[in-house]
Amino acid sequence: MSLTLLFAGGAERLDAYEAPLRRALDAVGLDADVTPDAPPEAVDYIIYAPGSALSDFSPFTRCKAVLSLWAGVERIVGNPTLHLPLCRMVDTALEAGMVEYVTGHVMRHHLGMDRHITARPGEWDPQVPPLATERAVAVLGLGALGRASAQTLARLGFPVLGWSRSARTVDGIACHHGAEGLATVLARAQIVVTLLPHTPQTENLIDARALARLPRGAVLINPGRGALIDDDALLAALDAGQLGHATLDVFRTEPLPAAHRFWHHPRVTVTPHVAAATRPDTAARVLAENIRRGETGEPFLHRVDTARGY
Questions:
Q1: Among the residues of 6-91, which ranges form H helices?
Q2: DSSP helix/strand/coil, 155
C-alpha cells in the first residue's frame, strides 16, 4: 500500500526534496506519494518546515508523525492542535556545516584575522596570538550540534567549557549546568558559542548580567537562536568595550532589517543564517528512516519532548 506524505515545507523546497525523498524511500522499501496537497484524512506523515501555511493539525486523524526539516522546532512545538509525535531534524550534513561554521569563526577571532584583513599599508603590528591551549572557549548547549562543535574545538587544543540547563557528560569537555554553572563558564570564557534551543527558559539568556560576567573583550558567536540574546544589552556591551566582537548568524527577525544597528556596528559581523542548513540528500534519508520506523512500530528518531520544547 502506498503512503501519502504531505509536504508542508513550501513549493520551492519540494522541488529540491522530491527526488532525494523518492530515492531514500526506495532504499528502505517504502512506496509513497509525496504531495503538497492531500485530504487530511488520507495523510500518513507530514513533512514540515516553518513558514508553512499548515497551522491546524487536528484534521489529520490518520497521520502518525510530523517530521520537521529543521533542527529547531520552537515555531511548532507550542501549537495547541499538535496531537501527533513531532520529530526534529538531526542530520550529519547539518551537523558538519555547524561544526565548520563554529570552528571557522572561533579560529578567526582566536587568531585576530580581522586585524590583518583590514590593515592598511604600513600598519605593521606583529601581535602574536596565544596558542589555543591558552584561550578558553565556552559552548552553551550540548545537544548534537553543541557536542560536535565542542569536541572539535577540544581536539584543536582549546580548553572547552560546556554548559547545558541540565547535567550532561561529554567526553573531553568540562561540563557545567544550572545557574551556578553558567556563571562559572562565562567568567572564564574568552570566546562564547551559543547553540541552545529557543525555549521560555533560554530566551534572553545572554542579557546584561551574563555579558558583564565575561572577561572584558570576550567574543560572542551565535549560530543558535536569535532570541537567546538581549539585543539592547549586547549592543550596550559592545559600545562599552565589555564585549570585543559579536558574530551573529540568527536573529529575532529574519531577514535582519536593513536599519538594524547590527548591520552598522563596527564590532558586529552579520551572517545570513548560513551556519547549518538542511541538505536534501542527507535529510531525506533521516525522513525515510523515521517513516520506516513508524510503519514497523519502532520508536521515532529525534522525537521532541513537547514539555521541554526540544
A1: 11-27
A2: helix
* Catalytically active residues, by annotation: 225, 273
Cα 300 from Cα 90, distance rounded (Å): 12
Residue type at 72 in one-letter notation: G
Query: How many CB atoms within 10 Å of residue 121?
Result: 5
- Res. 107 pLDDT band, cuts 50 70 90: very high
CA dist., res. 72 & res. 88, Å (int) = 7
Q: What is the dihedral of CA 295, 307, 40, 18, to 10 degrees?
A: -60
Residue 54: CB atoms within 10 Å: 17
Contacts of 49 (CB under 8 A, 6+ apart): 8, 9, 10, 13, 68, 69, 70
- Say if residues 150 and 168 touch (Cβ distance below 8 Å): no
pLDDT at 11: 84
| Rounded average pLDDT over 77-101 | 95
Q: What is the pLDDT of residue 59?
A: 98
Contact 5, 32 (CB under 8 A): yes
Element (H, E) at 181: helix 178-188
Neighbours of 300 (CB within 10 A): 17
Report the DSSP pairing between strands 160-164 and 218-222. unpaired
The percentage of the chain sitting over the pLDDT mark of 90, rounded to a whole number, equals: 91
In angstroms, what is the C-alpha Rg of the chain? 21
Indicate the DSSP class of residue 85.
Answer: -
CA gap 237, 145 in Å, rounded:
27
Mean pLDDT of the chain: 96
Q: Is residue 267 classed as helix, strand or coil in its secondary structure? A: coil
- Rounded to two decimals, the pTM is 0.90
Helix (H) or strand (E) holding 6: strand 3-8
Bridge partner list, 268? 246
Give the three-class secondary structure for 139.
strand
Other beta carbons less than 10 A from residue 259's beta carbon: 7
- d(CA 38, CA 138) in angstroms, rounded, equals 46
